[in-house]
Design goal:
There is one protein chain. This protein has about 400 residues and is α+β, with helices and mostly antiparallel strands. It folds into two domains: about 180 residues, GAF domain (Beta-Lactamase); about 130 residues, Histidine kinase-like ATPase, C-terminal domain (Heat Shock Protein 90). The longest helix is centred in the middle third of the chain and has 64 residues. It is elongated and about 120 Å long.
Length: about 400
């Protein structure tokens, strides 16, 4: 076989390899409409086909321009066990991307990754990465980083191929985000419909009952004291239910979460309880810029609200620590207080708060862990998985 034939054969092999890689990744992306699952599937295929060890995808929030880790594969222990190291902050590739100085996939083989810098243990030898900017119709979407333990610079052909993979990722991300937005719009519309329905039925009905009871109360004379007492009690209960119905309408409109991230809403909630009940509340968040499905945001907010209410009613605490941690895999919300604590094996039958918290966690596919002893305070740990959550 002459040199020209060999060259043609090599070109065909290279072309077939590239087509095979693109077809495999396209198939992985097309199988999933959920953003997290699609990104995880793509990262797995990229690692396998490009012979890299780990990788992660930064996405940019459209509303704020902040970056968050949307998916990660095989993070070394130093990053996996310390999610705060994957926060925004200073980052060479993100800074270059934000300045518009990253138009194509590039090797970052001469600059140590800021995420791994200073990790003397837990880095597993990883130091450098290649970065792939993600754009869709000239709009910044995010950055794909891929890392290899026995790092060698990717070839020009592989970088060009990664650019094409980046284009495919960008389209899949846009599609998944549009799908998620359609679900959120539907949820908001349904919530507002329920709010109108409660207002038009339950609230108006209770108002009518209140008017009738007020009339009956005015007509009763002093000789019917017991009847008057019963009517007045019913009147009091009806007014309370009317107030609860109005509160439910406000809750359904999810005012605390409108135009706010969950992190911001939880921070506001902490400040509110601290001011109202003279509590020292410390709130910390890691990964709080990641957008979440409405049902998870609303569920976690209500659980935090219920947990703080339990602290106020039962704990007699002075200090509360709230830690919110969001990674591509899960959310963890820990609420700990320095109150009087309790025996978790001997809860009073009337303590429905923890039962409700456990049910809310289970409905979101998560778990609730309660740790407490008399005189030693208490802590609640709520863990909600994120992969595939809609």
């Amino acid at each position: 076989m002459d040199s020209q034939a060999e060259s043609t054969n090599e070109k065909l092999k290279k072309r077939n390899r590239e087509l095979s890689i693109l077809n495999t990744i396209a198939d992985a992306l097309n199988r999933e409409v959920d953003l997290t699952r699609a990104l995880n599937a793509a990262l797995g295929k990229i690692a396998e086909l490009f012979n890299v060890q780990t990788g992660w995808v930064w996405l940019q929030r459209e509303e704020t321009g902040t970056n968050y880790v949307a998916a990660a594969l095989n993070l070394p222990p130093g990053l996996a066990n310390n999610p705060e190291r994957m926060e925004g902050g200073y980052c060479y590739c993100l800074d270059k991307y934000a300045l518009g100085e990253m138009e194509n996939a590039r090797n970052v083989s001469i600059i140590t990754c800021t995420r791994l810098q200073g990790l003397h243990e837990g880095a597993e030898g990883l130091r450098y990465h290649a970065s792939v900017p993600l754009y869709h119709h000239n709009k910044r979407v995010g950055v794909l980083n891929v890392v290899s333990g026995d790092w060698r610079e990717l070839s020009e052909d592989d970088l060009r191929l990664l650019n094409t993979v980046g284009d495919m990722l960008s389209i899949a991300i846009e599609r998944a985000q549009l799908y998620a937005k359609s679900i959120q719009v539907g949820a908001v519309e349904e919530r507002n419909r329920l709010a109108r329905e409660i207002h038009d039925t339950l609230a108006q009905g209770l108002t009518a009952i209140t008017l009738q009871l007020e009339t009956a109360d005015a007509l009763l004379d002093g000789d019917k004291a017991k009847a008057r007492t019963a009517v007045q009690k019913a009147l009091s209960l009806t007014r309370a239910n009317l107030e609860e119905a109005r509160r439910s309408v406000l809750d359904l409109r999810a005012a605390p979460l409108e135009r706010h991230t969950l992190r911001e809403a939880l921070d506001d909630l902490s400040r509110q309880y601290a001011a109202e009940w003279n509590l020292d509340i410390e709130f910390n968040a890691t990964g709080g810029d990641r957008p979440l499905p409405i049902r998870i945001e609303a569920g976690l907010y209500r659980m935090a609200q219920e947990a703080l209410t339990n602290v106020v009613r039962h704990a007699h605490a002075t200090h509360v620590c709230i830690q919110f941690t969001c990674t591509p895999e899960q959310i963890e919300l820990v609420i700990a207080d320095d109150g009087q604590g309790f025996d978790t094996e001997a809860l009073a039958k009337g303590r429905f708060g923890l039962v409700g918290l456990n049910e809310r966690a289970r409905l979101l596919g998560g778990t609730l862990e309660v740790c407490s002893n008399p005189g030693e305070g208490a802590s609640l740990t709520i863990t909600i998985p994120l992969e595939g959550a809609l």
